Amino acid sequence: MRTQYSTRPREQVSAILKREQRYLSAAEIHGLLRKSRQNVSLSTVYRTLDLLAGKGEASARVDAGGETTYVVCDQTHHHHAVCRKCGKVQDVSCEAIESVASALRTHHGFKLADHEMQFFGTCGACK
Amino acid sequence: MRTQYSTRPREQVSAILKREQRYLSAAEIHGLLRKSRQNVSLSTVYRTLDLLAGKGEASARVDAGGETTYVVCDQTHHHHAVCRKCGKVQDVSCEAIESVASALRTHHGFKLADHEMQFFGTCGACK
DNA sequence: CTTAATTTGCGAATCATTCGCAGAATCATT
DNA sequence: AATGATTCTGCGAATGATTCGCAAATTAAG
Known about the structure:
The structure is a homodimer. By secondary structure, chain A is α+β, with helices and mostly antiparallel strands. Chain A is built from four helices and six strands. The first copy, chain A, has two domains: 8-72, Winged helix-like DNA-binding domain superfamily/Winged helix DNA-binding domain (Arc Repressor Mutant, subunit A), CATH 1.10.10; 79-126, Dna Ligase, domain 1 (2-Layer Sandwich), CATH 3.30.1490. Chain A has helices at 8-20, 26-35, 42-55, 97-108, and strands at 24-25, 58-62, 68-72, 79-83, 89-92, 111-122. The first copy, chain A, has a three-stranded antiparallel sheet with strand order 1-3-2. In chain A, β4 and β5 form a beta hairpin. Chain A is globular, with a radius of gyration of 17 Å. The mean pLDDT of chain A is 86. The interface between A and B is medium-sized, with 32 and 32 residues. β6 (111-122) of chain A pairs antiparallel with β6 (111-122) of chain B. Chain A binds a DNA duplex through residues 1-10, 25-27, 39-44, 46-47, 66-68.
């Protein structure tokens, strides 16, 4: 895999993700594409999602039913606030984590290297 | 399902979890049980893990390979600090989250209802 | 427009997890 | 400690998401 081709199917998948701004599974994306008569195979949807996640342009999350879902997001380190009503995902920066890191070190003798976080609630628009 | 029977296989699965103190998949637990000549079927391991997770006595996490893994933990709300060396999991209380919640409200107009967190690093014993 | 490299689509293969059901274990009562 | 009602277990088959293999189609570049 020397270079990476920019192809129609890949752009179609990316476009859906950019448009929706919420966590979508491969199957859902495939369904949305079919609705608008853009025939991209399910395999290609999967491959494209892996690619995007690998480049850090999308982030993955396994939902309650065990399906892996993806959202577009920027590449800096951050976290997601997921609205329980509309599903929309907002990026959240994470300075606050610093205080958690020092508490971990103090109380648990634990040296923090990495962390995962996810927030659920109601977004401004849905209130 | 009126009452719940206390059975050998269930206790054997719980015992492994209590002993290991780290995230284990159903298959791993099944393997560990076989090694010590305790034959519990894989189905029963799965069923027992669901039960424990349902009662809040264990908590589940999908690992990088897509397998669901479980640890024992107490029932109060808390988070996990996972050691990257030995895999051991420590419970971490979460007062620090309060400050994150207010920041979310202020900066993003987001009303926090729930959250997930997971920490990775090196535990005191492994340093 | 040719060629070499990468992608696609299809169906088949994988892998974790769930189900169905007959037989075994458990519990509460005699 | 024997009985009966209920809940478990084990097995193999079924499911469902994801991955693979490979031939045909696209892409980038000369």
